[in-house]
Design goal:
Blueprint lengths: L1 H25 L2 H19 L8 H21 L5 H18 L4 H21 L3 H37 L15 H28 L7 E2 L3 E2 L15 E2 L12 E9 L2 E2 L8 E8 L1 E3 L4 E3 L9 E4 L5 E2 L9 E8 L6 E2 L7 E3 L5 E4 L6 E3 L7 E8 L4 H8 L6 H10 L17 H13 L15 H15 L1 E2 L10 H9 L1 E2 L1 H14 L4 E9 L2 E2 L4 E5 L3 E9 L3 E5 L4 H8 L7 H19 L3 H20 L4 H15 L4 H34 L7 H10 L1 H12 L10 H11 L5 H14 L7 H22 L1
Parallel strand pairs: 17-18
Antiparallel strand pairs: 1-2, 3-8, 4-5, 4-11, 4-21, 6-19, 7-8, 9-14, 10-13, 11-16, 12-15, 13-16, 14-15, 19-22, 20-21, 22-23
Length: 770
């Protein structure tokens, strides 16, 4: 009964673990609370001291309700994911099954439904926590299936007894007797099955890497966008949309920053801005910032060979840092960079698309898994860098012709990044008032001014000091940028960046809005910055004569860091460890694709070749010894004869060892010694040698003991057929049991008695043979 009770508990825990994993994958804590409470209550209602299963009609009614809800979830709520809908359906079927009467087929149904739900959860989630839950679930499911076999066998025996017994007889459930040998056998079988499953999974994992994202016609994109606007990187800004909410803390990329080969992330407290999209066009009617369509005509395809691609010379008089970026997901083509970049290298990308005008960098194709690349960037831009950009190979004639055929206007370098059309006099008046306090002024018709750097800094400082940062969109019936500058004076970072660009453009300067991320959270365990979705940010870039495009961030830095800061506590170290483990899980397991596999196999191959050439290692010494043997060996008729004799001797030795091993294994099985330690096996095999002699004598006369039959059963069968002839077999078998299981020693009297029984058996068998 103990194993049966353990089986019911394991089924309950397996169902609860499957529901927990699915709700976690779906990120639905409300469903977990409801379903988890119902599952926990089912144990008390059904398995408790006064427990009683619900009537089958109630279970059927609940199942019909679950089917109706599934249809409603699929056909009425069209935006529902089919995997989620089916997962809810299987969840409610399991809950209903727990409240009903459970026979073996019901338990089998529960196990199958739980397995299907876990498969659905594995499609929805790829986090390291879910991976740990899946591993625990796999071990638990293996134990449950093995115990289910024991329970079903016990039930079949009990059913057979019930049919044979009188109707009024009370039939006890057969007891499951588990000896030490059987327990070790069960553990060994479970371990063997588990290792085989792990080995098969590893082989499939290596031979069949992922080639695409987890997208199917049934599931669609797993990570569906939520209705509410979240903080996150966007390739355009819609200022008419509601203000972004607090974003997800999900890590998006890792960043390392080094100077002359030394990591400066752990000592540098300044945030690093990773630019993604450069937005140079504002549409007053839609209130959307976007990248001008004609700018794509200047996109250049750049190769990323081994050793990298030098886009521009590194300034000698400038501090140049090297940044390593690992995108945890490659769902989009945007490659985040510092401004400007002079060199780029990527082991995972063969090429990229670079625009020399706005510095925007994109992957040439969408790849699976993590994207890793390194780049160099000076801390201060110089015009020489941007001049080098313009010398990159221009786009082909076919590309320009394609744009002309599509009706896209040609790119106009004179008007790029200039001009403001929304309440221009009022915004220009505000900008000039700000400059007048600094004794500065600017001609709005001029493209460049010697004081542009001071002007841009004065406008940025004014916004940072006199405007309030908040994740809100102030109520307005007009243009949000004009309302922010002239009326509300508060808003989120997108409004700060747009406001600065609007004032700069109203004065004739070139300016654009930049969207990307701000990196400030340094993971000391992994040695890199962790950039999260909530770290998305917007700022401005303004062209300064003699310097090129410079970054200006008018958003109050202290408020930005306060919003994005996660704080320091005694849990910070554990959080950083978890995030580092999760990154390793995502980059090395989830993102394992064909390219990653080829790199891994190439490293293994290179390591083997390198080790074989190094004579200080054992493989290298063996390879060198074989090479010397081949070089010094004279291959004549005698050499070939000697080699053939050696090979033949080796083969004979191997066959002999295998035969000895097989014979020894058979003897251990016959003596029932396979589960004992080696020392006890050796001692008992010597003392029980008489039993093997008896079996050999019987087998020569055609009496073979089946492997499934016990020694006592074999002796009894022979004695019943010929009592006088095989009486010594019974006596010798009794001695076998006394020595094997009774731990008796062989003294002189017992030794003489055993010899006498063997002699009598030999005589009886000899008489029969004659």
């Amino acid at each position: 009964m103990g194993l049966i009770y353990l089986f019911r508990r394991l089924v309950f825990v397996q169902v609860l673990l499957g529901i927990l994993a699915f709700c976690m994958a779906e990120q639905n804590p409300e469903m977990l609370l409801i379903a988890g409470a119902l599952v926990a209550l089912s144990w008390y209602v059904v398995e408790g001291p006064t427990g009683k299963p619900l009537h089958q009609n109630i279970i059927m009614a609940g199942a019909l309700a679950a089917v109706a809800w599934l249809m409603l979830d699929i056909w009425y709520f069209r935006n529902s994911n089919l995997i989620i809908a089916v997962g809810h359906f299987t969840m409610w079927l399991q809950v209903l099954q727990l409240y009903g009467e459970k026979r073996n087929r019901d338990y089998a149904l529960l196990l199958v439904l739980s397995l299907l739900q876990m498969v659905g959860a594995s499609v929805l989630s790829y986090s390291v926590v879910f991976g740990a839950l899946l591993a625990v679930y796999g071990v638990l499911a293996l134990c449950t299936v093995l115990l289910f076999q024991i329970k079903s066998t016990s039930d079949r025996i009990m059913e057979a007894r019930r049919h044979q017994a009188p109707p009024e007889a009370e039939i006890p459930r057969p007891r499951v007797v588990v000896g030490r040998g059987h327990r070790w056998h069960l553990r060994g079988m479970a371990t063997f099955i588990g290792l085989v499953c792990v080995a098969v999974a590893l082989v499939i994992f290596i031979l069949m890497p992922r080639t695409s994202r987890f997208t199917t016609p049934l599931t669609g994109e797993i990570a569906e966008a939520t209705p509410a606007r979240q903080v996150g990187f966007n390739r355009e800004i819609n200022l008419s949309a509601p203000a972004p909410l607090a974003g997800s803390k999900e890590p998006m990329l890792n960043l390392t920053v080094s100077l002359k080969g030394a990591d400066i992330g752990s000592t540098d407290s300044q945030p690093w801005r990773l630019r993604g999209a450069a937005l140079d066009t504002y549409n007053p009617s839609t209130q959307i910032w976007s990248r001008g369509g004609s700018l794509s005509q200047l996109d250049q395809s750049i190769a990323l060979p081994e050793g990298g691609n030098q886009l521009a010379p590194d300034p000698d008089h400038n501090v140049v840092v090297e940044a390593g970026i690992t995108l945890r997901t490659s769902a989009q083509r945007t490659l985040f960079t510092l401004l400007p970049i002079t060199w780029i290298e990527s082991p995972t990308l063969g090429s990229a698309i670079f625009n020399p005008r706005d510095g925007q960098l994109n992957a040439a194709t969408v790849t699976t898994g993590a994207v890793v690349y390194r780049l160099r960037s000076p801390l201060a831009s110089t015009p020489e860098i941007f001049d080098a950009y313009q010398k990159l190979s221009p786009p082909g004639e076919s590309l320009s012709a394609a744009y002309q055929r599509s009706g896209t206007p040609s790119f106009n370098a004179d008007t790029y990044g200039r001009g403001w059309t929304v309440q221009t006099p009022q915004i220009r008046r505000l900008a000039l008032e700000i400059l007048s306090k600094q004794n500065l002024t600017r001609d709005p018709t001029a493209v460049a001014d010697d004081n542009d750097a001071q002007i841009a800094q004065a406008l940025s400082d004014y916004l940072e000091s006199n405007f309030h940062y908040a994740l809100i969109n102030p109520a307005s019936t007009g243009d949000p940028v004009a309302n922010f500058l002239l009326s509300s004076r508060e808003g989120h970072c997108e409004l700060f960046a747009a406001g600065l660009v609007a004032m700069a453009r109203s004065l004739g300067m070139r300016a654009r809005v930049i969207t990307g991320y701000v990196a400030h959270d340094y993971n000391r365990v992994g040695g890199y910055y962790v950039v999260r979705q909530s770290d998305a940010h917007a700022w401005a870039e303004i062209e300064i004569p003699g310097q090129g495009w410079r970054t200006f961030d008018p958003t109050p830095t202290s408020q930005i860091l306060m919003e994005h800061s996660r704080g320091n506590s005694y849990l910070t170290w554990f959080r950083q460890i978890y995030e580092h483990v999760e990154f390793a899980w995502l980059s090395r397991v989830i993102a394992f694709d064909k390219e990653t596999r080829d790199v891994l196999l190439d490293r293994v191959r290179t390591g083997i070749v390198k080790s074989s050439k190094d004579q200080s290692t054992l493989p290298g010494w063996i390879v060198k010894a074989v090479e010397r043997l081949i070089d010094n060996w004279e291959f004549d008729a005698l050499s070939y004869s000697i080699m053939a004799v050696i090979i033949l001797a080796i083969l004979v030795g191997i066959v002999s060892l295998l035969r000895i091993g097989i014979i020894r294994r058979r003897r251990l099985v016959a003596l029932q010694l396979t589960r004992l330690p080696a020392r006890q096996r050796r001692a008992l095999s010597k003392r029980l040698r008489f039993y093997l002699i008896m079996l050999d004598m019987l087998e020569r006369r055609g009496y073979h003991r089946p492997s499934w039959q016990t020694p006592a059963g074999f002796a009894k069968e022979l004695a019943e057929a010929h009592p006088l002839r095989f009486e010594p077999v019974v006596a010798l078998t009794d001695h076998f049991y006394e020595i094997r299981f009774g731990h008796r020693d062989i003294d002189d009297l017992r030794r003489r008695t055993i010899r006498a029984h063997l002699a009598r058996l030999q005589e009886a068998l000899g008489q029969r043979g004659s």
